[in-house]
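Throughout our pipeline, every protein is held as a single compact record rather than as scattered files. This encoding replaces a full spatial description with a residue-level series of whole-number codes. The remainder of this section carries one protein's record, kept here as part of the documentation.
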Amino acid sequence: MPKYQRIVLKLSGEVLAGSRSFGIDASRVRELAAEISEVAATGVQIGLVVGGGNFFRGVEAAADMDRVAADHMGMLATVINALALQDALEKAGIPTRVMTAIQMHQVAEPYIRRRAIRHLEKGRIVIFAAGTSNPYFSTDTAATLRALEIDANVIAKATRVDGVYDKDPLRHEGALLYAEISYHDVLAKALRVMDASAVAMCRDNQLPIIVFNLTVAGNIMRMSMGDPVGTLIH
């Protein structure tokens, strides 16, 4: 029996690139879609937010161009990824809707909160694309905002490491993994697991965050079932 009835799963754009450094790896997207569809088949209502870093990262580009223009380009990159995920999920047998914060009617539905909740109640996966439509806000913050708006039970951030560490485990051998940690400690220790604004929003609204390793097959299912996987921020 799933522990969480409604979740928002946050994926980085780089996940869709697989072993490549750019673009979309179709086989990796199919693997992800298969895992997510298994979770959806248990009755868990799933909202997805995916970044766009495999195509364009606004923060990095802003060093050479206008930040607002760079962020808008990054939002459009998330729409490309959302459409790729939608295609893979529907081929896996799960009806999926892409809802964008920037209106583009020929491509996807505009984001409307009540319609998104209705899709979830009908067993459809909803992919929230184009961030919040506002520059200076990351997809972490977009995922948090959507999770709060649709009354999700948890926001799950999928990463390349096992959870939240006291320092970067990819650079430091002796990094300590936290099983649980408070919002306050994440912010006070400047643990860069999510944007500070996203963590603060979760803290102010008591929305738990689970940070877990997406590269381990089956972890999405374990997380949704409430198994001890990754780090719980609460």
